[in-house]
UniProtKB/TrEMBL annotation:
SUPFAM superfamilies assigned: Metallo-hydrolase/oxidoreductase (SSF56281)
Species assigned in the record: Actinopolymorpha rutila
Keywords: Hydrolase
Pfam assignment, any one: Lactamase_B
Keyword Manganese on entry: no
InterPro entries: LACTB2_WH, Metallo-B-lactamas, RibonucZ/Hydroxyglut_hydro, Sec-metab_biosynth-thioest, WH-like_DNA-bd_sf
GO terms of molecular function: hydrolase activity
Database matches in Gene3D superfamilies: Ribonuclease Z/Hydroxyacylglutathione hydrolase-like, Winged helix-like DNA-binding domain superfamily/Winged helix DNA-binding domain
Entry keyword Transport: no
Record protein name field: Glyoxylase-like metal-dependent hydrolase (Beta-lactamase superfamily II)
Domain of life: Bacteria
Domain Metallo-beta-lactamase positions: 31-215
Length: 291
């Protein structure tokens, strides 16, 4: 099997730049994507400053000031350390506010579904997408210059946005390669499935042409990837059901049967997802009993 081409970050269209953290691994793929989003006047907003790596944080700061403006805010998609551990330090370096759902990181205010953050002419809408973690959010970016690819004449303008289609920053809810973990016990499968369905509906309605994930490359087929995620979760759930019926008694035993083809370095993460799936199946059984 040919190894996937390594994602290295860099510009995505005219308004977005990914500064890739140097923390590759089984859970982080090529590293954490820190997204720098630029307004027309050069100011920037940073999504997920990343790990507590001074060199990375200063690279992000330099990127944020590269168009003559300043970083006006930093926000988090969720509180996992590969996205958040350097957030406070970055806010100090940039002299900017830091906002997040998790109160531990909401130094200058929280984030709630429907909130709109602005930088110059850009508007970033908060979309609550719990499941990977309880505090996970995505960000819908409406840009009159279409940050995904402003000069592409082959892409029609979206219905509600005559200047172009939107992009969606998904954190770890949807990755650029592979599928994500449901980080039990904080993460939960029921909310995660609801979040995937919500994103699919949003992508189709807006429309959204690209996903900018928290790890891995840009997703150019949002509907296809979201359909794959939903199908994959349904298939895994059936496999977990079958494993339990065939005698698996512990999450580890389920992992050994259902995730046998997965790199063992990922088994601890798979076990978190299995625990989330078992909890979800228990909740379905309880609902059926109550009915």
């Amino acid at each position: 099997m040919t190894a996937p081409e390594r994602w290295t970050g860099g510009p995505v269209g005219a308004r977005a730049v990914c500064v890739l953290a140097d923390n590759p691994g089984p859970m982080t793929l090529d590293g954490t994507n820190t997204w720098v989003l630029f307004g027309a006047c050069g100011d920037a907003l940073v999504v997920d400053p990343g790990p507590a790596d001074e060199g990375h944080l200063r690279q992000v700061l330099a990127a944020g000031g590269s168009r003559g403006g300043q970083v006006t805010a930093a926000v988090l998609t969720h509180g996992h350390l590969d996205h958040s551990d350097g957030a406070r330090r970055f806010a100090e370096l940039a002299g900017c506010p830091l906002r997040a759902v998790d109160p531990a990181y909401a130094r200058d205010g929280g984030l709630a579904d429907g909130d709109v953050l602005t930088v110059d002419d850009l508007a970033l809408r908060v979309v609550a997408t719990p499941g990977h973690t309880s505090d996970s959010v995505s960000f819908l970016l409406s840009d009159p210059a279409d940050p995904a690819d402003p000069a592409d004449p082959a892409v029609p303008a979206s219905a509600g946005d005559p200047a172009g289609a939107a992009v969606l920053l998904t954190g770890d809810t949807v990755l650029g390669r592979g599928t994500t973990v449901v980080a039990h016990p904080d993460g939960a499968l029921g909310p995660y499935l609801a979040s995937l369905r919500r994103l699919r509906e949003l992508v189709a309605q807006v429309p959204v042409r690209r996903l900018l994930p928290g790890h891995g490359p840009v997703v150019d087929d949002p509907l296809g990837v979201l359909d794959h995620y939903l199908t994959h979760r349904a298939e895994r759930l059936e496999q977990v059901r079958a494993a339990v019926r065939s005698g698996a008694r512990t999450p580890r035993e389920v992992v050994e049967r259902v995730y046998a083809e997965v790199d063992r370095a990922l088994w601890p993460a798979a076990e978190q997802s299995v625990r989330a799936q078992l909890d979800y199946l228990d909740s379905l059984a309880a609902e059926a009993t109550d009915a």
